[in-house]
From TrEMBL:
Entry's localization field: Cell membrane
An annotated Gene Ontology molecular function: pentosyltransferase activity
Location of the Glycosyltransferase RgtA/B/C/D-like domain: 53-212
Annotated source species: Algoriphagus zhangzhouensis
Alphabetical list of InterPro entries matching this protein: LipidA_mod_glycosyltrf_83, RgtA/B/C-like
Keywords linked to the UniProt accession: Cell membrane, Glycosyltransferase, Membrane, Transferase, Transmembrane, Transmembrane helix
Predominant location: membrane
PANTHER family with a match to the protein in the record: MANNOSYLTRANSFERASE YKCB-RELATED, MEMBRANE PROTEIN
This protein's name: Dolichyl-phosphate-mannose-protein mannosyltransferase
């Protein structure tokens, strides 16, 4: 039997098939937007040069997609899906550039799309979706610059990195990684001019953030410093706390890369002693430097699993090359690893039909995986039903949680601007928008929705409570949790609790 070996065509067939699965997933009615997705969409309805915690790129792409496709889940999730295809194609091109092999390039792209972090970033619209794309694009353009020795590629790479900086500031790690790479190659002096040009173009992407933060009390800088454990209240950490945090960091990063690739790492270490991988430093440093830096930081503070996962795509190139140079059994392992890495999430992505997920127990896994993405459309529909029944005209909607407020804005008809009642949580974008203060003394109904609080009376005083209920939320027929819904008449006083926490 003749084996099909047009690897470019195979790449596009595989990508088209997986894109179709993601589109089907986006239309599943029982799965709503992840709360961060809803928040970033709401940013796109309030376009700015920067936001409290992140640069504007995620808001810009949401604005473009929803302008084209309307405000719906598909419009939000088609963006990471397309960026995912673009990222996989760039890994294909980078691998082919380095190894002159479309077969290795194909497998590098397949390994990449099977990695858990990449499945996450290319399915749900997070700031990491844009960041990962521009990270890969920048390293591809830097590879072109080093191979072809033309200044234009350094400039293009700088532009790409600037767009990455408009996605998430952690991409600044490129500067020390690239400098370290050139130093180890003894090429830092040779490419000093190009390195400076790249850095200057790169830093143009920082200007909107800098200007916005200068105008807004450097909110983002304080937020990032708090997350990194530099500012804010610090809990005393014992040696056991530090070791636990570090071990959790290691475990989370292995899970992000893929447990199926751990044996390949072992093979790579053994093989590297005999024959180094070509351009190994160029492929490994982008992942290893952030891993070591954040691993050290994990002894001091908690590190979220996704914070450095964007830096791992070049590992897929290493894995594909290592497996291509090994025995037939390892090549079979490659196929199984990719198949399982894609197949297991595929089971979750596909919709329920004829009750097979319930019978096989997959539904229980779905409940755990999608618990935080269920029920917001149900809440919105219930609010509208009650609003109509109570004849509440021109109400305003709010929650103590910016997550719930963002979801309400997305799922309520006409997508109203919602509010957050400041009840002692850390600062967020809602603190910079119109406050509940503007509703004091206005004859209007306030609709409070919460998944955790019984009431907002700690910070609000209304004329009277009109109606309240505990509304049950379901995932298909399975009960998940309840939401408190209250209708209040005329806000008389609002005394927000601001802790100063970032």
């Amino acid at each position: 039997m003749r084996i099909f070996k047009n690897y470019v065509t195979l790449f596009w067939i595989a990508q088209a098939a997986f894109l179709l699965v993601k589109i089907v997933f986006a239309f599943r009615p029982e799965i709503n937007l992840f709360t961060e997705e809803a928040q970033y969409w709401l940013w796109s309805q309030n376009l700015a040069w920067h936001y409290y915690s992140k640069p504007p790129m995620v808001a810009v792409t949401n604005f473009l997609s929803t302008s084209l496709f309307g405000i719906n889940e598909f419009a939000i999730r088609i963006v990471p899906a397309i960026l995912g295809i673009g990222s996989a194609w760039l890994i294909f091109q980078l691998t082919d550039l380095l190894f002159q092999s479309k077969k290795i390039a194909f497998w590098a792209s397949m390994i990449l799309i099977s990695m858990p972090f990449f499945l996450l970033f290319s399915t749900f619209h997070m700031t990491d979706s844009e960041l990962t794309f521009f990270w890969i694009l920048t390293w591809y353009l830097l590879a072109k610059a080093l191979k072809e020795k033309q200044m234009k590629w350094w400039v293009f790479a700088g532009v790409s990195a600037a767009f990455g900086l408009a996605s998430k500031p952690v991409i600044l790690l490129i500067i020390p990684i690239l400098g370290f790479y050139l130093f180890l190659r003894k090429d830092l002096k040779t490419y000093s001019k190009e390195f400076v040009v790249f850095g200057l173009v790169f830093m143009l992407g920082f200007l909107p953030s800098l200007i916005w933060n200068m105008q807004n009390g450097f909110q983002t800088f304080k937020h990032i410093a708090t997350l990194g454990g530099v500012e804010g209240e610090k809990e005393a950490r014992t040696i056991l706390d530090a070791l636990k945090s570090f071990s959790e960091f290691i475990g989370s990063q292995m899970a992000m890369i893929s447990i199926f690739m751990i044996p390949v790492v072992w093979v790579g270490v053994k093989r590297f002693k005999k024959q180094p991988v070509p351009d190994a430093l160029f492929l490994l440093l982008p992942a290893l430097v952030p891993f070591v830096a954040f691993g050290a930081l994990s002894f001091l503070t908690e590190i979220q699993a996704n914070w450095i996962a964007f830096s791992y795509p070049t590992l897929a190139v290493c894995f594909a090359y290592l497996l291509s140079e090994n025995s037939l059994n390892w090549k079979k392992y490659q196929s199984w690893a990719v198949g399982l890495g894609l197949g297991l999430p595929l089971i979750l992505f596909l919709p329920e039909a004829f009750g097979w997920k319930k019978v096989t127990g997959v539904e229980k896994v779905e409940l755990a995986a999608f618990r935080r993405m269920a029920g917001y459309d149900q809440i919105a529909q219930r609010v509208m039903f009650l609003q109509d029944s109570l004849k509440a005209k021109g109400p305003f909607y709010y929650s103590e949680s910016y997550h719930v407020s963002s979801e309400l804005a997305f799922y309520l008809p006409d997508h109203p601007q919602t509010y957050q009642a400041a009840m002692g949580a850390r600062r967020n974008q809602f603190d910079l928008w119109e406050s509940l203060d503007t509703k004091v003394g206005k004859e209007a109904t306030g609709v409070f929705v919460s998944l955790h609080e019984e009431s907002s009376e700690k910070v609000t005083q209304f004329e009277e409570l009109i109606y309240e209920e505990e509304f049950p939320i379901y995932f298909r027929e399975v009960y998940l949790r309840s939401a408190k819904i209250q209708f209040w008449k005329n806000l008389e006083k609002y005394t927000p609790i601001h802790t100063g926490a970032y």
